[in-house]
Amino acid sequence: MAAILMLATSARAQINGKVFDAINRIALENVHVIHKGNVIAVTNASGKYRLQDAEDIDSLKFQRIGYKSRIITVDKHVMQIPLSPKPTALKGVAVKGYNWPGNTFSRSGPVSVLNKRDIERIAISGPPDLLNMVSGIYAHSGARNTNRITIRGIGARSMYSTTKIKAYLNEIPLTSGMGETTLEDLDLDLIDRLTVIKGPSSTTYGAPLGGVINMRISGQQQQGSFIQTKNTIGSFGLMKNSLRAMTSGDNTSAEIAYTHLVSDGFRENDNYNRDALTAIVHHRLNNDLDFTYFERYHKLKAYIPSSLDEQTYRNNPQRAAQNWQSVKGHEDYHKFFSGLSMQWDVNNKVTNTTGLFYKDYAGYERRPFNVLDDNTATLGARTLFKTPATIATRKFYFRVGYEFFYDDYDWNIFETIDQKRHGDLLSKNTQHRYYHNAFITGETSWKTFTFSAGLNYNKTHYRYLDHFNDSIDYSTAHAFEGVVSPRLSISYDFTGNIMAYGNISHGFSAPSYEEAIDSEGFANTGLQPETGWNREIGFRAQLLNNKFTASASLFSINIDDLLVTKRLAEDRYTKINAGETRHNGLEFTLNAKPVNERNFKSTFKLSYTHSAYRFIDFTDEGNDYDGNFLPGIPKNKLFVSGDVEIMQWAFIHANWLWVDEMPMNDANSLYASSYGRLSLKGGLKKNVFKKWMIKVYGGINNLTDNHYPSMVLVNAVGYGGSDPRYYYPAPPRNFYAGIAISYFF
């Protein structure tokens, strides 16, 4: 009996556990563990802490710069503590920008972070409006299902989609093996944090030319359970209904969410209907090992109004393009993707994160010129080891990893007959595409300097199979040469609140499956990946007790082997490597909290981009475009927003987006005019009977009812005597309102 009592007393006298970021689950170092006002422990690089002789401790406070402090009642010996970042914090918050558990402020590269509050203010409008908050990004929006996102001018020459940018959701690649990213499929209400790495500076995510967009759905962050229903109605038949349920215990948390979104759109042939189901489960097996399972399924049917010629755009912007209207052009698809990841503290120094993912897509698109019936299956894995090491008495931090995925893409092309039928099979094809990325990064500090270097190696190859029963077999296989992409950066901390950095990095973009097939159906094996070097200097500052934060950067990106679209007919175009561009730019961001009292808070955000992106060496069909600006990118872009929160239960938000004129063709002979757009949103929230919370909100988009193109089709060509269709008109003034009701168990 005495031995049992001694063991029980010893166990009770010791407390240990782990502290981590509640959103991206990164272990948090330097968290102060406080008891009765005294710091009694500090977490190590693995986020772990241990308290001896803790028999008389009944509560602990966990505190770290950039995070909300938590006071925890001690009722067990092992405690896993998630900390939530402060909504407006910059310094101290851990992000997965470079897959390094550092904070945004100290990163020696172009990283921008949007938090939950930023996302909630604009979530109803969709990803393009949200991303236009960020300097260096310009997002076109032709319709809810037709978007083109560009970062520092990269991807501007894509026709109808986002390319040359990689996106991840909970470490699962959203970008397909075809090279396309469709962020419009996501429910922004579920996203807790969005991190943008601009330009070819992300070694650990494959060094894409445009950059990386990382999104996190964290699941339940605090212990307990709740259920929420949220319903929004708006102009043009908008109706969005969602239902979420979350629960969290000592070691396991789970969330499931269903969303239904429909809209008639303001144009003809603009109907949109989407259903989505999302689930996420976290389970911590022990203090060293935890698992996350993520799954999402959604189905979509969206009609396509397409672009308009100038006369129709100015006089009848609600019209659809006649050829798309005549066949009721639309896309109809199902998507499913899932991922299982493991975070493992191998020992006190080495940690590993490994994930497996699977994606499945089945689509059907009716177009005036043909019908596309396609399917994609993707299987992949990603692993990352992190460890410190001492070399010649200096401490280094290393990250070593590998990413692989395989795409199996099948597509059939049929003749278009009418609005309901398709005709004969025109082609039947398969492409197997393999991606390999291996990478290593290292970082060390000396006094107030931090040095970082990285290296990514990519190998991409594919097999193209022609299954169509005719006299010509277009089947072939091709492997692109391996691409080595280095990165080197240095940062200097002047005062702890002011830092500067310099960065040089390399990136690339392999041709997509469409780009790799020429207009005759043969594999275009002569194409080379686009490659580029980014050179950049920047600074960040936090002043007056974090009331003001600012960042600025000057950069220059040189792109070689530019892929250029040569459109031969409405349904036939090919790609060639045909030039060099230089992307010189300036980005500036300012965040301010003029008033930050308990019952009254105000915030102000400003982001500005100056884009001098030009052709350096580009001749097409005898036309010399050297020195011309890249089409589809405004020379200047300004975003300004302001928030006021009163008594913690009411808010008013306003934002203004101004976009400079932009060329629409390589010759710079046609320009889309500049425009400004003002949007407002307000809301109230109130706790009722302790367990209920009610939120009501409403807003106005495009308050001044400006007429402008929200997307332009670069280098549009008219066929059969018709005028070229450059313009996607933006919706006129529109309204929405909603209510969210939550019950806490």
The class by helix and strand makeup works out as mainly beta
Percent of residues in β-strands: over 45%
Question: Distance N terminus to C terminus?
Answer: 41 Å
Largest sheet: 22 strands, antiparallel, barrel
Mean pLDDT over the residues: 88
Counting H and I runs of at least 4 residues, what is the number of helices?
5
Number of strands: 47
Low-confidence stretches: 1-11
Rg value: 26 Å
Query: What global shape is seen?
Result: globular
Keywords:
five-stranded mixed sheet; 22-stranded antiparallel beta barrel
Mind explaining what this structure looks like?
The protein is mainly β and about 750 residues long. The protein has 5 helices and 47 strands. It has a 22-stranded antiparallel beta barrel. Mean pLDDT is about 90; it is low at about 1-10.
Short description:
The chain is mostly beta strands.
Strands, helices and their partners?
Layout: H1 2-12, E1 15-21, E2 32-35, E3 38-42, E4 48-51, E5 59-63, E6 70-73, E7 78-83, E8 111-114, H2 116-122, H3 127-131, E9 137-143, E10 146-151, E11 162-163, E12 165-169, E13 172-173, E14 180-181, E15 193-198, E16 211-216, E17 224-234, E18 238-248, E19 252-263, E20 272-286, E21 289-303, H4 310-315, H5 322-326, E22 330-345, E23 351-366, E24 371-391, E25 394-416, E26 422-446, E27 449-466, E28 476-479, E29 483-493, E30 498-509, E31 530-543, E32 548-560, E33 563-569, E34 572-577, E35 580-596, E36 600-617, E37 619-620, E38 623-624, E39 636-646, E40 650-659, E41 662-663, E42 671-672, E43 675-688, E44 692-701, E45 709-712, E46 727-729, E47 734-744
Parallel strand pairs: 1-7, 12-16
Antiparallel strand pairs: 1-4, 2-3, 2-5, 5-6, 8-15, 9-10, 11-14, 12-13, 15-16, 17-18, 17-47, 18-19, 19-20, 20-21, 21-22, 22-23, 23-24, 24-25, 25-26, 26-27, 27-28, 27-29, 29-30, 30-31, 31-32, 32-35, 33-34, 35-36, 36-39, 37-38, 39-40, 40-43, 41-42, 43-44, 44-47, 45-46
